[in-house]
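Data availability (excerpt). All sequences and predicted token strings are deposited with the supplementary files. A representative entry, HlyD family efflux transporter periplasmic adaptor subunit, is shown inline so that the format can be inspected without opening the archive.
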Amino acid sequence: MRRMILVPLLIIVAVLAIAGGVAYYLYNNYLYYSTDDAQVTGSIVSVSATSAGQLSALNVKQGDRVTAGQVIGTVTPPNNGNAVRLTSPIDGTILQVAAVPGQTVAPGVSLVQETNLNSLNITAYVDEGQLDNVKIGQDVDIHIDAFSDTTYTGHVQRVVQATAGSFSLMPTQDNASGNFTKVGQRVPVVISLDGNTGKNIVPGLSAEVTIHIH
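Structure token line:
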């Protein structure tokens, strides 16, 4: 008798547990959209010579902080004219130095790359089916893989007006062949990063975001 009562009770409990899990999943999906297809991004600026000549001085190295207008090097023209000063266009941190003093440089060739580590963003790639739910200003929870013990906050700043595939150099499929296969597209969404909490966050780090869509 006791077993006859226990079996239906266990079935009811199991059904309720499944129903509760489904309800939680649907409710969570209603409130939030999450993706781990995201990374830290920042504007990387190149400094190059405006004229050909010899790089007579280079005053910075990787990791140095510079200010806008700071002289970071000089180029001496081959005709012994006045030296041309290389200046930093932004307040930032030197990411890469691709030249050494004494070498010959050409106009337009990048000598130094820098970025402002205090003005980083997160670029997340959102499924096109969720695009209608993503709005400017929505709160975002951010986890950066390199610092998994820290939760960052941000806000949706901009939805890029093109899919990620539009920026690819190679087409994703050949529609002319007649073998068309519909592929779900992803759209880049730019998210602010509200502070780095003292961590060494740099462009390119992988991240996961949760957007509060409702």
